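[job 0412] stage=complex_fold ligand=guanosine-5'-diphosphate status=START
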Amino acid sequence: MTEILDRDPGFGIYVHWPFCAAKCPYCDFNSHVRHQPVDQVRFGAAFARELATMRQRTGPREVTSIFLGGGTPSLMDPQTVGGILDAIAAEWTVPQNVEITLEANPSSVEADRFRGYRMAGVNRVSLGVQALNDKDLRFLGRLHDVSEALHAIELARANFPRLSFDLIYARPGQTVEDWSRELERAISYAADHLSLYQLTIEQGTPFFALRAAGKLSVPGAEQAAQLYEATQAVTAAQGLPAYEISNHAKSGAESRHNLIYWRYGEYVGVGPGAHGRFIENGQRIVTFTERVPETWLDLVERKGQGVTGGETLSRVEEADEFLLMGLRLVEGINLVRFEKLAGRPLEPRRIAVLREEGLIEPVGNSGLRATPAGMVVLDAVVADLAR
Amino acid sequence: MTKTPLSRIRNFSIVAHIDHGKSTLADRLIQMTGSLEHREMKEQILDAMDIERERGITIKANTVRLEYDARDGQHYVLNLIDTPGHVDFAYEVSRSLAACEGSLLVVDASQGVEAQTLANVYQALDNDHEIVPVLNKVDLPAAEPERVKQQIEDVIGLDASNALMISAKTGLGVEDVLEAIVHRLPPPREGEAGDPLKALLVDSWYDAYLGVIVLVRVIDGVLKKGQTVRMLGTGAKYQVDRVGVITPKMVMVESLGPGEIGFITASIKEVADTRVGDTITEEKRQTTRPLPGFKPAQPVVFCGLFPVDADDFDDLRAAVGKLRLNDASFSYEMESSAALGFGFRCGFLGLLHLEIIQERLSREFDLDLIATAPSVVYRMNLINGEQIELHNPADMPDVMKIASIEEPWIRATILTPDEHLGAILKLCQDRRGIQADLSYAGSRAMLVYDLPLNEVVFDFYDRLKSISRGYASFDYQLTDYREGDLVKMSILVNAEPVDALSMLVHRSQADKRGRVMCEKLKDLIPQHLFKIPIQAAIGGKVIARETISALRKDVTAKCYGGDVTRKRKLLEKQKEGKKRMRQFGKVEIPQEAFIQALKMSD
Ligand SMILES: Nc1nc2c(ncn2[C@@H]2O[C@H](COP(=O)(O)OP(=O)(O)O)[C@@H](O)[C@H]2O)c(=O)[nH]1
Ligand SMILES: C[S@@+](CC[C@H](N)C(=O)[O-])C[C@H]1O[C@@H](n2cnc3c(N)ncnc32)[C@H](O)[C@@H]1O
Ligand code: SF4
Ligand SMILES: [Mg+2]
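[job 0412] stage=complex_fold status=DONE, emitting structure tokens
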């Protein structure tokens, strides 16, 4: 499928807002709770400075998408958001049709703020709904209930041309039956995009400690697989098929920004704990920034950026990342691009074994993708192909 | 020549079960005869290697010359030869004993006679030793000297009425031990100083400064510095560089005369050039009456040793070479295995020997090793009349060519408190044992069993220890080869045979062994993307089977925005892990799985 190769994966800007009203017990994102009000003016100025510094490294580029993620970006004042978007537009070319997503928590949604974000330029909202029953929302430590979530969905639909929301499934004791019904209901509220994540117990989180203490049991491999398969079946039947492991959309409604990651395009990451990947002097480089918000702020104010690490990727590393991300997509990867990055083709013997097991399949002459069976065990498939 | 008349020399050894106090008594004797200054004393002086000292076993024979002024006003020279008191080194023990005229039989007065007590005392009797029973540890409240005396009489058939009662620890009665050595043990039999030299090669070892050191016992003639000697067994000729005695410091002397024990160095390159039991004589005037001769070391147990990390192969090669320098009874040849890569097939005198070598390799040479299951030496009688020895199950000839297979048998002696007897009988029975004798001494049972060695190398000793809660003692000697219904059991992973896991087993044991191995592997081999049958088979017939189900779910649900690094690091770790795996057809088996599967216990 030459079209995959030819398609420019794009150039995105990721901005990380690292604050939340409360820390969810499953979350290991770079999010922090502050009991003093955050000085948004100072942070806004720091974002602008770090963006300017990044611009010097990337050179002039046309931006395909902007993503304001977190944390809880919907805790930002619309002016802060506007300032950030203005700063981006001042540094790079931002075309009319750019995708600008903002992550929002249902508990922090107000009609006025949504209107403000829209005015500032945001054209897509991703809402952290997580569950459609109050018991599970409480279990997940969320600050909102179902009615607030539905209200937020309604408001978002009224204000933004595009809307997605997130659900977390494979909760303790959740049956395929329960989940399928909840999912169908969610789809009835959905616009054209949904993110459906299986609950992952991350090291260092309260859930991790609970599980270690035997006080939390999550579905085992078989149950998790069945839930995953049910998810695929329900969403496909309702016209929201997966285009990535955990992401579903009507054709054309995919998140362009996230596609940049999966298609291994280029992106700049600013804000505390943000990651970037872009080409500099002909080589793909990695950037990441200081995670602690105040430390990051101080760094940026003194040095113009909070970047604490950067390295150029070796061929093998780049090829690994390409494979890792690309095979998450239903469209698969282009093998010619893999060979170019890796300097070697994938081992035909491994491809043969995996094909024989029905886990991967060719796409056109030079494409390769995981089959639905392969998707459920993708990490193992990638590990097999990557060496 | 040290001018000690024969009548004032006593050459003796101490025989004991492990931990009954042999080393402690030796220390005490050294101390009381003033052979070492106080500050030079450390415990267990004669156990030179760390492993010996730690495990309380003597691997090499060792000697110490004690100067003793007896109560009769005379000065005596007492040569103590400390022997490796373990069956694996039975031949070495017998040569050490051949260098002496008497033995102290040390028995722990709180424990009584144990299996090694018996094995060792019978060896001493075989060498015509005069024996003085010594009851040690009488300081312990649990000591029952009278009962143990009775036991010595009942079980061994020795007169114990004159047994000494001592505490090697406190020193109580040790003076009497010295007196008993002088008065109850005989001096060396008359030797002729004027005769051609005839000396017994007792042992040899490698010393970093002096090279190969040979421990000798002179029978006839005189051994001098500068002399040209010939070893009758190997035929090699050497010029003697040094002659000395061990006090336990090495002290050079001019010569050694009949009845004396000492050492020589003679620019001998390797320990392997010397043979324990060989006769040393003068080149110019050779003795016409050589000693019974030496027996070449016969490896009894074999196993493959492989480096965990293939890059360590050269280090392993260097290490086994070094060990062999000092231990000619250990043999090795290169082996290559599809499962484990390059390594060595090594031969040992027995299980303890195997364990010691393995431990030294990891300890002294810092090597991470995988050892395959120990295997005995089988004799294959082929249809064409040939007989071949099989050291490695992987080399088994085509069954169609085999007329019969013989395996080594042992005679085992087990002493146990009688409450464990039932369980032990069952264990021996399960291991194809044939009872030869069962007798009682007080509340202890003495059990004699004939057993196939093949069943003993497979975790017999560990099982015995565990079912008797450590109270049973065990010793054995090789007896003969007997024909057995032995079959090669192969292990197939996803239909591919895994060479390192194949073994020869008795047909009656095959089902159980096969089942245990398949169950173990099922837990040890990680799930793959497809299901993996694991089978144990004899020829084409599957006797046990397990299946590892295919991975059901393994995918990261959420993506951390642009943080690909985290996922890549995970992938790199997985790739690293895969490097430590061996590929069998489509299946990757972690090295750790081999290590665990090859552990003998079930
Ligand atoms: N109470 C007591 N302990 C002793 C005596 N002799 C040796 N031991 C202890 O018994 C253990 C084994 O002694 P050792 O000399 O190493 O025994 P070997 O294995 O025969 O050489 C050590 O812990 C000694 O300290 C003794 O007379 N009385
Ligand atoms: C970057 S988070 C932030 C979104 C927003 N702060 C919120 O929680 O509503 C994006 C999404 O990841 C998902 N997520 C976070 N932690 C997760 C976990 N441990 N297991 C599964 N999904 C998780 C949630 O659905 C969440 O909405
Ligand atoms: S609101 Fe979102 S980012 Fe914040 S703690 Fe909860 S899951 Fe994490
Ligand atoms: Mg000892």
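DSSP finds 16 helices and 15 strands in chain A.
[job 0412] exit 0
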